[in-house]
Amino acid sequence: GANEIGAPYAKETGPLEVVRLENGNRYVNVDMANPEGIAHARDLGLVQSGLANVVMTSWFDETASVFDHEYKGRCFALLRHPIKRAISLFYYLKDATWEHTYSEVYQSLTIEEFAASEYAEDNWMVRFLTNQRTGGVYDRHLDLAKEVLESKCLVGIMEEFTPSFKRFNEYFGWNKQDFNGPVKMTDRGSCVGRVINNPDNAHPHPTHEEGSEVWNLLLQKNQYDLILYEHALHLFHDVQNEMVNSP
Questions:
Q1: Can you say how many angstroms the Cα of residue 232 is from the centroid of all Cα atoms in its chain?
Q2: pLDDT (tens digit per residue) in 166-181
Q3: pLDDT in tens, 68-118
Q4: 29, 6 Cβ separation under 8 angstroms
Q5: Taking the alpha carbons of 28, 33, 35, 37 in that order, is the dihedral positive or negative?
Q6: What is the pTM of this model?
């Protein structure tokens, strides 16, 4: 795959190569977690090299430039309820010193202070799907984000991870491909079960119910994201449920 894990092994002038970690997982030596790294991967011909089976990134618009008319990509996205995501992110970043988004400021904030602050997410999904990173977000951005999801992405729902993974697997035919990774094809079922039941980055944290102060503060900043999430639910259950047989 190609994501941010290959960043420490990236070389300014190339060449592209696959790095095998101690756990057997393999990544291309590029950084897909920021625009500069994505542009570097594009210039080195990441997609044309055929080294990566999957590209993982939040930078939708920038990553589109890595592909071309001959080497096309198929997007899949796993969406989480935006309020639950923001709450989880806050508690995660209080501890995740290894993340590039970590900041010591989270250590001194309560969840209520975070929700009312500039650090809380502001319609993150709509912004990244429409490249509207700064300034206001309006109905036209929401409409465009809906169109992008519906026309460009196979949608999965984090709260329905098992059926979402099954749909991705069937659509892309992953279970029929031998990626020569650390897990044999015959053992993939148990591997998938482990990921579903014990995800590597799971981070237990307090919950805040709908209607609480924290929930309402975050809702004020993420109303468009919530509408987009509800549209994603519609796509997942009512529109794309027949797509698995037509990749």
A1: 14
A2: 999 999 988 887 777 7
A3: 999 999 999 999 999 999 999 999 888 877 777 777 888 889 999 999 999
A4: yes
A5: negative
A6: 0.87
